[in-house]
Amino acid sequence: MARNSLLEVENVSVSFKSAQGPIRAVRDVSFRINPGEIVALVGESGSGKSTTGLATMQLIPSATVSGRICLTRKDGTKADLVSLSESDIRRVRGNEVAMIFQEPMSSLDPVFTIGTQMCEAARVHQRLSYRQAYAASIKALEAVGMPDPEKCMETYQHKLSGGMRQRVMIAMALSSKPSLLIADEPTTALDVTIQAQIVEYLKRIQKQTGMAILFITHNLGLVAEIADRAIVMYAGEIVESGSVSELFTRPRMPYTSGLLKSLPRLGRKKTLGTPIEPIPGSLPSPLALPSGCKFHPRCGHFVAGVCDTAVPELESSDQAHQVRCARWRDIARTAQ
Fold first, then answer.
1. Distances (CA, A) of 30 to 61, 78, 255, 280
2. What does each of the 336 residues of the chain score in pLDDT, given as a tens digit?
3. Strand 315-318's sheet: what is its strand order?
4. Cβ neighbours, 10 Å, residue 202
5. Residue 80 CB: number of other CB atoms within 10 A?
6. Residues 20, 29, 211, 189: what is their CA dihedral angle, to the nearest 10 degrees?
7. In the chain, where do the E strands start and end?
8. How far apart are CA 128 and CA 137, in angstroms?
9. What is the dihedral sign for C-alpha 205, 211, 212, 214?
10. Bridge partner list, 212
11. Domain boundaries, the chain
12. Are 235 and 289 in contact, with CB atoms under 8 Å apart?
């Protein structure tokens, strides 16, 4: 494990049982997150992003998780989250690693008020009295810009807007001051104005606390706004990783290029009437993955006998940039 890494994910695979046989939703994923760093995990729906985040929190009881997920804890010790007992992993969740889930409507209990749920989390993870937990919850809601926090504490989740529910989830996750925050599509189903607010809250709180963030999203616009590094996933594998500026200006993997080309861009010449370039086809079924490169049936750079034979290794194109493509050198030379 790198000396300064907060989280080191090594060769992690996640498998599920099914009537058709085992499904490997994530295969041999490795990456690291340093203290205070914001890393984006990017890809289409079904690429394995959320599964990777949930596996890090050990929140998939029906799955088999292999590999190592090593966390540097607040006391300086290192723990492999995969091998921890259920009682030990509960001490890590919330205190050391917190998660904002994709849909706050299904994450918040409709039977209890926001205050009851926030106070319970604070009392369990921080060992506070009810009075202390209430005060801490009010402070957390103020930090994420919640209007009238006292009223919010007495409110049920169905009376809040989507943006307010997501702010509650962020406040609850941050109340224990975790070292790592996993944000799983935190702006899903929110309008662009609220999306921008949520991103600004996360960036501001990250600077104030120094915590690291694993930001899971399919929205490359948000990646450019918030992340230091990006990891691109496709069909359960990492296909490219590097700094955000490098990936946006010099993508090596055709899949990453396809994601960028499918974005609408303001200011482009003759934008009116110019169609977006979507990636053809769709993600393959994990039960019927293609041979060789998993992206080759959708790739415009496909060469028979090269791309559909051996699975390409994830190799370094320079010091901090990795790519999984048998033809990335040829593609890079053509692009120059």
1. 21, 17, 19, 28
2. 445 799 999 999 999 998 888 899 999 999 999 999 999 999 999 999 999 999 999 999 889 999 999 999 999 999 999 999 999 998 899 889 999 988 777 889 999 999 999 999 888 888 889 999 999 999 999 988 898 999 999 999 999 988 899 889 989 988 888 999 999 998 877 788 888 888 888 998 899 889 999 999 998 888 999 999 999 999 999 999 999 999 999 999 999 999 998 887 665 555 455 567 889 999 999 999 999 999 999 999 999 999 999 999 999 988 889 999 999 998 888 766
3. 97-100, 180-184, 212-217, 38-42, 229-234, 237-243, 321-323, 315-318
4. 25
5. 14
6. -40
7. 7-16, 23-33, 38-42, 63-72, 78-80, 97-100, 180-184, 212-217, 229-234, 237-243, 315-318, 321-323
8. 11
9. negative
10. 180
11. 104-177, 245-335
12. yes
Tokens linked to 239: 């296909």
Query: Amino acid identity of 120?
Result: E
Question: What does DSSP assign to residue 299?
Answer: -
Residue 76 structure tokens: 């300086």
Report in angstroms the alpha-carbon separations of 165 from 103, 130, 215: 9, 22, 18
Integer Cα distance of 50 and 43 in angstroms = 10
Helix (H) or strand (E) holding 154: none
Helix axes 114-126, 130-143, angle to 10 degrees: 110
- Residue whose token pair is 């120094």: 210
CA–CA separation, 132 and 123 (whole Å): 8
